[in-house]
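Now for a specimen:

…
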Amino acid sequence: MHRQPLLDQLTAYAAAHPEEADTVTPFTDFVAAEPQCFERSLEKGHITGSAWIVDAAGEKVLLTHHRKLDCWLQLGGHADGDPDVQAVALKEAQEESGIQEFQRIGQGIFDLDIHPIPARGEIPEHLHYDVRYVLQVTGATDYVVSEESHDLRWVPLDEVCHLTRDPSMLRMVGKWRAQLQLQ
């Protein structure tokens, strides 16, 4: 089954983060129940892959001021049928930043989030089941702002809260700080 690798990652994430059962359980149930979960055409919701991109020192994160949603977020996008969500996150990071050289940090999922996307044109309101991985830049940190963004910015961890109050963004800041302390 093409969903099994993601289901395996979700099982490992659930074991490592029992405090997030309110998110992990419905996320896992959705993937298990929806053979088309990786397709944008699944109107009730679909899988997206995102990258929490950090600089070489791990002290700054690259954020996008998303054009359609008009808020600061991590980079990422639709799976569009690709069940390798980690590859989706990497592809989106490269396309949306112009940066090509990354290394993956950690062995599994960094964070999960389920969030509503407002209706836009003929596309009804739906849910994004977002799988997030940490990518660290290994080369130049110069970026190019894509058509999907108003702006990109390297943001010190302590300043993320000045750009967004989104609980999932602040949760990732906390998780990354905790991970830095373990290194």
